[in-house]
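sanity check both lines:
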Amino acid sequence: MNTETGLAHSLLLLNVFDMKEVWEFYKSGVWVQSFLIVSIGVFIAVCFILYLLIITSRSRNIKKERRTIEYEIITEKIIFALIFQETTIAETKEDIDFKRLINNTLFRQVMTKSIINLHKNYEGIYAKRLEQFYKKSGLIKDSFKKLRSSKWEIKCKGITELAEMNITKVFDSIITISKAQNKTLKITALNACIKLAGVKGIVHLTEHSYPIDDWTQVNIINAFKKHDIGDTEGVEFLLESQNTTVVTLGLKLIRELKLTQKMPFVAHLSDTTPNAVLKYEAQHVLQTLRA
């Protein structure tokens, strides 16, 4: 026990002695010059590295912008020939520029963007030609890859592309995605469902257990107006939901789209619902439609 006590006492004295030496060294100021030199050296090195990174990043961005402009010109030429010169898809795929660049990621992104934007402005045979080329060129695979992404913003982009090009086979997958908690992803998926299947794209909401906020409802109504959905068969099913926000959505759709043929369903809701708020909303819709 005495031995252990003596050892502890010796270590304590040694620590005190070391601290005194450190304190004397600090007070002497000898270390200041070396510290400043090292600090300045590190600062200059860090600044130089940051400068190189900024220059490299800017150079890369400038190069990408130039290539994007070049690819846009090539893409416009290829798509113009496809749409207006009645060039076949097989001939388009044999185009020298297309064959040379089709495996380039940036070129595929530029071409997909161009096709999507053009498809929004064309109908009939021109739109069909773009859809066929989108599928047969393999660009559709890029959209499917985005759809499977774990990042919601990339997933939204894939959903928008596939819906715009009327790829109906992804409808069930988008229905599943529309149940996501992310509001932007949910709205994007619901809009896509409406574009692909009209009312069928939202009938599944009758079983929706979570509240549908006002912003989502506004986007759904705007999607119906934007895509000019003519067949509204099934909207009345929303009035049968146990989710009051879904019922409210159904009433708003009937009112905003002026679906007078749905008045009997609204009247039935007004007569049978025990919810005072829904009763009032239903009566208001009836008054609006009658007016």
User: Anything to note?
Assistant: The mean pLDDT is 85.
